[in-house]
């Protein structure tokens, strides 16, 4: 096995006085720290980063007067936020071109978005990474902004953003098998957006929460949802068919045959392996959630 290691040479001086990134209030003491924060928080950055104070800090505190001169031109020629940060990251050389392009694209997509929308996109990434506990905290913080006075919470985005937050919070809760709470989030999303798919998600969560008999009685009490209920049953049928073709279904069938047959030792060994995987996954998720606090 050949292990390739990349050596990075520090650019500029390590500043005695930090620069605090606007909106994030994260202190950085060198160019590498600045680039790291830009990459990790690209979802949250806005035009406030593109200012003379940062350029002066780079030139005076980090000793990079050539870079400061280039950035000064970007600001006063009204360049874009993405080109401003790309210039910094390419000059420092901490990341390869592919990473820089990713940051550039994120900044372009985020231009014009409110702070709430940018924060939502960051929390959405936690769901994709299956860090559901941290995601729920993030969504609750976002929803709480609607209850703050304008001078504290700032201008609020459109109602469909609030609906999307409720929907994604419902998705996170469903992954944690908290179906009753998920259903309430989907109901809130439907009342805000009036989209039929939110009503289907609401019914799906209730179907998972309740027994078959309880769900039939529940659905019967909502005749206005008859069409959505039919659509859900079709979706459940297709999902069941897809599951039976899935590799995990075959693995479970194999384990069932081991349990019912004579090879119970293999069944116990497989149980032990799966239990260890779940424990390791849980420890990782708890550790990540604690870091996010």
Protein model, in words:
This protein has helices at residues 31-40, 52-61, 65-76, 81-92, 97-110, 115-128, 132-144, 150-153, 159-175, 179-193, 196-209, 212-220, 226-244, 247-260, 264-291; strands spanning 19-21, 26-28. By secondary structure, the protein is mostly helical. It has three domains: 19-110, no CATH class; 115-237, Alpha Horseshoe (Serine Threonine Protein Phosphatase 5, Tetratricopeptide repeat), CATH 1.25.40; 247-291. The chain has a two-stranded antiparallel ribbon with strand order 1-2. α1 crosses α4, α6 packs parallel to α9 (159-175) and α11 packs across α13 (226-244). The protein starts with 18 loop residues before the first strand and ends with a helix. Residues 289-293 have low confidence and may be disordered.
Provide key terms for this protein.
293 residues, mainly alpha, Serine Threonine Protein Phosphatase 5, Tetratricopeptide repeat, two-stranded antiparallel sheet, 15 helices, extended
């Amino acid at each position: 096995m050949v292990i390739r290691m990349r050596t990075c040479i520090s650019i500029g001086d390590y500043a005695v006085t930090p620069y605090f990134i606007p909106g994030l209030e994260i202190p950085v003491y060198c160019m590498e720290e600045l680039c790291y924060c830009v990459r990790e928080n690209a979802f949250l950055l806005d035009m406030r980063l593109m200012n003379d104070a940062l350029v002066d800090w780079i030139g005076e505190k980090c000793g990079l007067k050539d870079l400061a001169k280039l950035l000064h031109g970007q600001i006063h020629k009204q360049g874009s936020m993405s080109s401003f940060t790309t210039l910094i990251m390419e000059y420092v050389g901490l990341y390869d071109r592919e990473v820089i392009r990713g940051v550039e694209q994120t900044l372009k997509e985020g231009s014009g978005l409110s702070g709430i929308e940018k924060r939502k996109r960051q929390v959405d990434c936690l769901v994709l990474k299956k860090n559901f506990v941290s995601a729920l905290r993030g969504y609750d913080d976002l929803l709480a902004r609607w209850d703050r006075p304008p001078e504290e919470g700032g201008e609020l985005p459109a109602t469909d953003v609030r609906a999307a937050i409720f929907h994604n919070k419902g998705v996170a809760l469903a992954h944690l098998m908290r179906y009753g709470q998920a259903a309430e989030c989907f109901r809130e999303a439907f009342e805000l957006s009036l989209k039929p798919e939110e009503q289907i998600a609401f019914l799906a969560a209730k179907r998972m929460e309740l027994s078959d008999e309880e769900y039939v009685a529940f659905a019967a009490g909502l005749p206005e949802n008859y069409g959505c209920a039919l659509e859900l049953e079709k979706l459940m049928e297709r999902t069941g068919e897809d599951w039976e073709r899935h590799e995990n279904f075959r693995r479970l069938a194999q384990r069932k045959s081991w349990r019912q047959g004579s090879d119970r030792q293999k069944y116990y060994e497989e149980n032990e392996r799966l239990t260890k995987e779940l424990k390791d996954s849980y420890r990782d998720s708890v550790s990540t959630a604690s870091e996010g606090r």
